[in-house]
Design brief:
This protein is an alpha+beta fold and about 190 residues long. The protein folds into 2 domains: about 100 residues, no CATH class; about 50 residues, no CATH class. The chain is about 25% helix and about 25% strand. The strands form 3 sheets. Strands 1-2-3-4 form a 4-stranded antiparallel sheet, with no helix packed on it.
């Protein structure tokens, strides 16, 4: 266990880290600074195992200010593991934990996520290759890929459009016309 120190020592659990075996797998409970950021929603403790799988355990009846080591340790009773649905390695059981891993270990989850990302990027590359060819046949010389940063804030959005030998100044004017507060966030792709 890491001992609490300084200002954070007043709650008695700051910096606490405890590792135990759960169903034959080492699981570490850790009290972090984020634990304190959920005021009014109970005690939140980070649970993790080797390989990167992690979840947050919550004790709604206990606040960080009045939590004891025993209450943190009691959260081990809420840890439920299952075999990864892909490779059989330990994973947090999605029937008990709020997780987007769907019963997969971190390695398998990230491998599948990478495959989805690669497939999406390939589809996007093919889509732009087709659009680029169509616009080049119509006389356009460049594709502009940009991010519109709305004046006054809000969510940025990606845009692409085609131009004929446009200068950077002309592209900036177009991005301003589309409402971008930062019209320098673009790149041009020669067709």
């Amino acid at each position: 266990m890491n001992e609490p120190n300084g200002q954070d020592a007043q709650d008695g659990i700051a910096g606490m880290e405890i590792t135990r075996s759960v169903a034959g797998t080492d699981v570490t409970l850790k009290v972090t600074s984020q634990t304190r950021s959920y005021l009014g929603t109970g005690l939140h403790v980070h649970a993790s195992m080797a390989g990167g799988n992690s979840v947050t355990l919550v004790d709604p009846a206990t606040t960080p200010a009045n939590a004891s080591r025993q209450q943190v340790e009691a959260l081990f009773e809420r840890v439920h593991l299952c075999a990864c649905r892909t490779c059989g390695q330990p994973a947090f059981d999605p029937n008990y934990h709020d997780t987007n891993r769907a019963g997969q270990c971190e390695r398998c989850f990230l491998r599948d996520l990478r495959a989805q990302l690669d497939a999406g990027q390939q589809a996007e590359k093919e889509r732009f290759a087709k659009l680029d060819a169509e616009h080049k046949a119509k006389g356009f010389t460049h594709r502009v890929d940009a991010h519109i940063h709305p004046v006054g804030g809000g969510s940025d959005r990606a845009v692409s459009f085609y131009v004929q030998n446009a200068s950077d100044a002309e592209i900036r004017r177009e991005l301003k016309r589309q409402g971008s507060a930062s019209p320098d966030d673009f790149k041009t792709v020669a067709l």
